[in-house]
Description:
By secondary structure, the chain is of the alpha/beta class. The protein has three domains: 16-129, no CATH class; 155-170 and 321-451, 2-Layer Sandwich (Nucleotidyltransferase, domain 5), CATH 3.30.420; 175-310. Helix content is 57%, strand content 9%. It is built from 17 helices and seven strands. Helix 13 (389-398) links the parallel strand 5 (377-382) and strand 6. The longest helix has 41 residues, at 452-492. The chain starts with 27 loop residues before the first helix and ends with a helix.
Amino acid sequence: MRKIEEPQMNLGEEDISRIQFDLRSRDEIPKLLIGLQYIYCTRSIREAVFKILEEITPKEVDTKNGRPGMTLWKILVLGILRLNCNFDFDKVHEIANQHKTLRRMLGHGFLDDDKEYAIQTIKDNVQLLTPEILDRINEIVVKEGHKLILGKKKEKIKGSCDSFVVETDVHYPTDINLLFDAMRKLIECMVFFCEKQGFSDWRQSKHKLKMIKRSFRKCQNIRHAHSKNPEKKAEGKKRVEEAHEEYLGLAKEFLIKARQTMEKEPVIAISMSELLTLRIEIEKYIQHAERQIDQIRRRVIEGKVIPHEEKVFSIFEEHTEWIVKGKAGIRQELGHLVAVVKDQFNLILNHRVMEKEKDVEIAVSFISETKKRYPDLVSCSFDRGFYSLENKEKLGQILDQVTLSKRGKLSFAEKELEASEIFLEAKRKHSAVESSISALENHGLDRCLDYGISGYKRYVSLAVLARNIQIVGHWIQKKRLKKRRKEKWKQAA
């Protein structure tokens, strides 16, 4: 049984519209809660958001019968809080159970002190949110934000577009440490497999893990000889090859043993679904190990260069990309490029996680999608990474004004265009997008802590939605504070 919200207030519960906040607070939580209060108390927004949230519940689930689950409103609030404050689930768990104002926003009164959330309940429920649902809610929030900020004014939307890297939660990859990761997980899975099947093959798993780790450390610490003497150089190369041969030999030995164990008949009965899940998991790590063994042999023993497209940068987050943006002091970043479009009010209009794509490849489709959502978008500025002659022509057909600097040498006409007052003004304002990117990174999008590409996309969508709700909350906070000051001045007069 899954409800959007409780249809009737409980004894001691306070109406969300009556919750008061410290309007002088500079912390992000009051701003976020004010934004959420505005969504909840504005009927048109609440109904639109709740209608979208209903899609989380599968159609075959009866919403009136069964064990009560966390309401969809609570799921949205806790998910947004986590990203906006850059909390891990432990922190969300503590705040959800102890933060008085947040608990009132979740629908708990002074008689509900004994009602607490389990950390696993929060994790499982927040993961129900999908990127598609969050993007649709974000569109509603942005449009209502424009109405709130502009009021009766009629102003066209002016955008700025840029991309940045959101890193995945992985360590720096080398072929030997990726092989160690695969072997470590394989040994752990084989121990669990043997316990379930009643085998004793991997009872010395701790010793095996120490053996593989010792061999890995030997490869890690050994260095090529840099002597000009050919004999010493050859001797150093031989030491490196021998250390890696030993490491690969040990890994191959454990892989053979793993396959032999999997072929044995089980001693203890186990369900087919559980057995299949275990076998898939083990096979995955075996394939990772075999790939790394092949690449290490080719690189170290045969002296070949491994093509970039063959490399995997994490066995846990296989979608991770190696990105070099050419920034000072940052040699590489591990994650994905995320493109964002912001408007003149710092609201994030749209975003896209770029999977093996570049800025220049997504410019037209990304802006076309944003224009469909916000027909009032009339101009947009870009940096040089988005430039191509085709992009400039197509973007000019979509928007009234495109500020896109050309790469390389400029013609006389292009110099005149880029020296014009309108172009220079838009270019000066374009740097504000870096402020929005910095704010996103500060509020969760520096590193994604969720697992898999679907978790990654959900994490990014939640961060964008949370940021926009915070901005809306900030505008409301300023208006309320201004109104309060005017009232004080009237009383003083």
